[in-house]
Design brief:
single chain, Immunoglobulin-like, 177 residues, alpha+beta, four-stranded mixed β-sheet, 9 strands
Length: 177
């Protein structure tokens, strides 16, 4: 709350209130400075898409290039990948900065019948320590044939059945989404 004092030149704030206003202004300017500084250093999230069942050693993407790191920085800053899922499906080639597949990934075993399958990863660099979040989306390939509950189905159709009548079949189970 401000108190105004009547002066020969009109109404004005007391000297202590003027100083308080300056301090508030200084802190507000400092806050905005930090806000814009952090805004300019925030990076977007990197996302890769790969089909399931890639063989070991397949390249997912050049993570060093996507993060803006030079080849010299890859080794010096100890670029490595940490999985949030527990198992290490990916590794980083220190010579080229590429994200590689460590082991075959079975999408159905990993995500079940979920419509999307995304593995979150952390790329860690040291000196200074930085964490970069990336996501690898595992796309489904048609590697499983549909399976019917019974191999044969017998239908008894009378001669008097009208043309165009439909006979429903039991649905097939397909592990692929």
């Amino acid at each position: 709350m401000f108190t105004y004092v009547n002066t020969p030149f009109g109404w004005a704030l007391t000297p202590s209130q003027k100083r308080m206003g300056y301090r508030e202004w200084r802190w507000q300017a400092l806050w905005w400075h930090h806000f814009f500084l952090l805004w300019s250093t925030t990076n977007g999230q990197t996302r890769y898409s790969i089909p399931e069942e890639l063989k070991q050693g397949s390249v997912v993407g050049n993570v060093a290039k996507d993060l803006g790191l030079g080849l010299a920085e890859i080794f010096d800053r100890k670029l490595r990948v940490a999985s949030e899922a527990g198992e290490q499906y990916f590794s980083v080639d220190a010579g080229r900065g590429e994200l590689l597949v460590n082991d075959r990934i079975d999408r159905e075993a990993l995500c079940g019948q979920s419509a999307s399958c995304v593995l979150p990863l952390q790329i860690v660099t040291e000196n200074p320590l930085q964490l970069h979040r990336i996501e690898v989306e595992i796309k489904d390939i048609n590697d499983n044939s549909p399976v019917f509950l019974t191999e044969e189905r017998f239908l008894k159709i009378a001669e008097s059945t009208a043309t165009g009548v439909r006979f429903p079949l039991d649905p097939a189970e397909d592990l692929d989404v």
